[in-house]
Amino acid sequence: SLTLEEIAHGVEKKIKVNKHISCTSCKGSGAQDGAAFHKCTTCNGAGQVHRVTSTFIGQMRTTSTCPTCNGEGQTIQNKCKSCHGSGLQHGEEIIAINIPAGVGEGMQLTVSGKGNAAERGGVPGDLFIVIEEVKHPHLQRDGNNLLHDLYINFADASLGISLEIPTIDGKAKIKIDPGTQAGKVLRLRGKGLPSVNSYGKGDLLVNINVWTPQHVSAEEKKLLEQLRNSPNFKPNPGKGDKSFRDRVREFFE
Fold first, then answer.
1. Cα-atom radius of gyration of the chain, to the nearest Å?
2. Residue 30 Cα to chain centre, angstroms
3. Of 26, 11, 20, nearest to 93 (Cα)?
4. CA pair distance 144, 203, nearest whole angstrom
5. Which end of the chain is flanked by fewer CB atoms within 10 Å, N or C?
């Protein structure tokens, strides 16, 4: 699991993996001692067997893996008592993984040669890592962009204010202009997440929400009643005020 901060900058993670490892007693050979190997008598050490069969068009020669030694060309007369000749045992390994910046939920990384060990010294498999993102308390991810809902009160929206908002690199100060309308989106360019294996970065989009109190005191109610009939408080959107459709279109462009 990765936080947005780790995704933004890349990180090295050490994970504990339970898997098949080479047997520590026989060092993966499967034999109790070094003299326990003998040439397979079925294939004479070739690892393959040949068969000739007669058909109506003549004789056919086929080659297949030796069933006695499974293609290894040798057999174990004295198997390791710990792994019973497989050369494997269950164990765990601490593996360091370099995770690049910009990875996303569900993305899969492959670490070559760090999967299960193969029988008797064969080529080990690969380890597959699936990325999981930890939910951020204040930021939401949308591709390489980050989204933040900022709530301000009516007075701050009317008079304007400077505020600090969270980013993946700490706090950033923004200015709310006087007369800011609910639904306005501020774009902080380059404050989003990087693309994987790229130099580009997304933006931080701040959605302005003007909070309306659900309960007011008698004194507050009296003040609001005085403001209600003021001509300046009657809705009067101008050409510069974008419609909901325009804001949605701009958001997804």
1. 34
2. 38
3. 20
4. 7
5. C
Task: At 15, list the tokens.
Answer: 């994970």
Distances (CA, A) of 167 to 147, 157, 206, 233: 10, 22, 11, 34
Residue 8 CA to residue 169 CA, distance in Å, equals 9
Evaluate if pTM is beyond 0.90.
Answer: no
User: Per-residue confidence at 186, pLDDT binned at 50, 70, 90?
Assistant: very high
pLDDT tens digits for range 69-98: 777 777 887 888 888 888 899 999 999 999
Between the ranges 68-82, 112-126, 164-178, where is the mean pLDDT highest?
A: 164-178
pLDDT over 80 (residue 46): yes
List 204's β-bridge partners, or say none: 146, 188
Dmax (CA) of the chain: 109
pLDDT at 147: 95
Give the list of residues 6+ apart from residue 138 with CB closer than 8 angstroms, or none: 148, 166
The rounded distance, in Å, linking the Cα atoms of 119 and 123 is 8
**Which residues make beta-bridge pairs with 31?**
79
